[in-house]
Structures are given as C-alpha cells and as structure tokens.
Design a protein that fits this description.
This protein is an alpha/beta fold. The chain has 2 domains: 141 residues, Rossmann fold, CATH 3.40.50; 225 residues, 3-Layer(aba) Sandwich (Rossmann fold), CATH 3.40.50. It is built from 13 helices and 11 strands. The strands form 2 sheets. Strands 2-1-3-4-5-6 form a 6-stranded parallel beta sheet. Strands 9-8-7-10-11 form a 5-stranded parallel beta sheet. The longest helix has 26 residues. The protein is globular. 38% of the residues are buried.
Amino acid sequence: MIDPGSAASLDEPPLHGGDVPGKVLILRWGGSAYDSLGGLLELTGRELAADGFERLGAEVARGGYAFALTMSGIGTDFRMPDGRLLWEAVQVPMFNWCCDHPCYFPTRHVIRSSYLLHGYVFPDHADYNIRHLNPNGAAYAVHMGIPPRGIFGDVPLPLASRNGRIVFSKSGKNTNEIEEAWRRRMPLVRDILFEAAETLFHRNTADFLPGLQQAAERRGLHLSGNSDLAIALLLDLDAYVRFRRAEMLVRTLLRYPVDVYGRGWDHIGWDGASARLLGPAPWADMLRQLPQYLGCLSMNPLVDLSTHDRVFFALAAGVPASSDSNEFSRSHMPEMEPYAFAFTRERIEQAIDALLSDPQAALERSEATWQTLSERFSMRYSARQIVQFIGLRSGNVRTAN
C-alpha cells in the first residue's frame, strides 16, 4: 500500500508504483444547486482511480480510507453524538475543495482541526483564509485543472462541423433589485456598500477587503477581516459585483451569435437579439454540446491567480475561450489574450470580434495553449496535489493560538 504522505516533489507529484494506495470517500449532495460540483468530483475521482485509489461511497469506517474529498464544504461539519467532528473521530483526513470565497458559508472555513484541510480552487481564496481566518496552520490552493480531452470524444471538431455560435453559461440577477434592497438597509451600511461597490467593480478579490475597510473607516467603522460584519458585507459585495459584471456581459452580447444558458436573465430585452436565452441546462448536457461551439465565453469569479473551470474545460474540448484578463491568463495563457477583456463594453466587443473575425486563428491559439497547459494544469496533476497535501495532514495545525 502506498502512503499518501510519502516524500515526493511538489513540482511534479507522482504516485510511485505499488499496490492500491487506499480508499477515497467522495461526498456528493444531490440537492446542490450546482450539479457541476458532483460532476467535477466524479472527474477528479477518475484521476485518483487511475493512480490506484479505490473510490467508495460507503459509510466511513475506521481504517482503509486514505482521505475524504468534498467540494464547497459539504459534510465538513458532520459531528458525532458527543459533539466531536466526524473526521477526527474516525481519524480520516477531509480535503474540502472550495470554489467560492470564504465569505460564502463562512462557518465551514473556520473549523479548526488537523483532520480538516481547507482547500481552495483559487489561490486568492486560500490566501484570504490563511491571512484573515487562519483556523489551521495552512490553507491549500489546487487549481481545478484541465480535464482529460477524452471525455469530449474526438476533438477538436473542424470548424465546418461547428454551429457558428459562442456559448455563455452563467446565471444572472437584476442588479437594480439588489440596489433597491441595499437602499432599505441601515444608512451606514447602505452608504458603505454603494461606495465600496463602485470602487471594486474593476478590482479583484485581494482588493475587496481593503476597499470595504476604507469605505467603512470613512464613516468611523473599523473592520477586521474575520469579523461577522466584514464577512457579511463581503458576501453582499462579491455577489453584487459578479452579477453586475455578468449583466454588462450579457447586454453587450445581444448583437452577437451567443447562446446564453442559465436562470435570472428575464429582465434583459431579448427581442430582435442575435443572442438566444436558452435557460438552465444540466451540466452533462453542457459538456456534450461544448465541442460544437465556435467559442466559450466565461468570467472569473473576481480572482487574479487562476481561471474559471469553464476556461479549462473549453481548452480540453478544443473550443477557444474568451474570459476577463487577469494575472494568471497573462502569465500562462498569453496566446489567448486577443480574446480576453476588461469589463467595459468596448473591450468585450473587441474580444468577441477578434474571435469571430478569424475563428481558425483562435482555434490554433487555443490548441497551442492547451498543449502548453495540459500537463502542469491538468486535472490529474490537481488530484495528485491533493494527495500530496493529505500527506502533510499532521502539520495542519497552528503552533500557537
């Protein structure tokens, strides 16, 4: 049996030969609004299985499990009748792989236990955890990664076999309704939110707390990054800025051949638009349809140090991705910068026009990017990183309180 904690290089984390490393318990919740989370865990499980792990969905029993894996906090706070955390009671490390900022379900991000590893899809969120919440001795950043190309069949498809359209999958919300709700808040909170929202529209996660603190301090309120009030206000701002950016994107897309999937877009005027509102679709259906598109439009969740999983999946499917430019894209995906944008109407139009004006060039740039990233940022690499971090479990504690 392979010990997940055996020494290996984090620059290239292999699992060296031998017998089955152990069993992995993967937690899924059928009631989640994001059925993609279950799909992403399934794909990650396949990568672990390819490295010799046995995936089981059975009841946790002492012994035999190398670790448990979940996304966005599902099951992290399970407790025994005597109040002990389940993972401590059965002595099984739990890797909680979160795709949202800690301001979402914050109680899951502050659990202090050497058996609970606070992992994040985006390094920006891991940095917030360790700087401001700091429940354990470490937080772990693991990119979602590029899935195996084989899940899409024989790709990339030739341009002649594609539908000539761009796909955008994102739920929306009428930001006028959010603003109206803010106006009914306590005047102090209302004014802080409106000022911070304007300041932060073009900024990223690392700037949100300082921006909030500056707006609050001008009104005599000094906030730490781990206070309940700061976390609650960050949640308001994170959601609002994301919805406002998405709204700008959709309004700009109306004259383009774009298929928009998701809820919350009924407040947009679709009559006479080239874009089509197709409503929500199961994640499996989206994967099946993705290779047929000319391009895939995405937006990062306010992060600077990684990219949305839709970009990684588009690259695997042989579909050029267009998303907002950040430090990660500029450093690791320079070939795709002609199709990257900032959140202004002009920059969004420039990116889409560049993709549609020469789709063959876009495809060639996309394939070159996939070749460059497919090893270092693969889902297999990410799965192996998780195994490496599990091996550090005994050091997942703070030296001092």
